[in-house]
């Protein structure tokens, strides 16, 4: 479930960055970049959870 949610967060961050860049709003651009980075970290966390669950399933 988190996969699509975090992809959507990444997309919204990209949109903020694009709008900030187009309008010269450096704060919005930076916020968008930060949102994207945070979403990517969450996606990595999701993948780690999936791998851990797979290993647990194999061991049990």
TrEMBL record:
Annotated ranges, domain CsbD-like: 5-53
Compositionally biased residues, Basic and acidic residues: 1-19, 26-47
Annotated segments matching region Disordered: 1-47
Family: Belongs to the UPF0337 (CsbD) family.
Protein name per its UniProtKB record: CsbD family protein
UniProt organism field: Nocardioides yefusunii
């Amino acid at each position: 479930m988190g996969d699509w949610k975090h992809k959507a967060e990444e997309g919204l961050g990209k949109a903020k960055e694009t709008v900030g860049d187009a309008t010269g709003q450096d704060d919005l651009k930076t916020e968008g970049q930060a949102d994207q980075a945070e979403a990517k970290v969450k996606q990595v966390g999701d993948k780690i959870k999936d791998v851990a669950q797979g290993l647990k399933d194999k061991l049990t």
